[in-house]
Amino acid sequence: MAFSINDPQDDELLSEINMIPLIDVMLVLLIVFLITIPVMQHAVPVQLPKAAAQPQAPALEAIRLTIDADGRYLWNDTPVSDAELAARLAEAAAREPQPPLQLHGDRAVRYERVAQALAAAQRAGLHSMGIVTEQP
User: Regarding predicted confidence, which is higher, 112 or 12?
Assistant: First the structure.
């Protein structure tokens, strides 16, 4: 705001910063901070009970069944035949708890080979199966 001096002949304006609104805002912020800081730092002291727990069993390592571009099966990076694959799937299904089966299929392989592997896993009794893909 600009105010003039009491002299009516003088048309000069006084340019001063009005500090009252700034002080009002600063006082409001100070009050807000004074109220909220104790609430943020307030903690309820609790004495937690002590208990002994059994360690959890380690997570099962997943079985990696890979089907390469030629349609060959690899059980954890070891080549296996169709008959040996069925035997290993049955052995894995008999374990308790069953390990999960991760199917890594090459994009060039015929879907028939992937479907055969999934059907063999289902016949063997595996319940946890997944097809691994890459993000685009």
Answer: 112
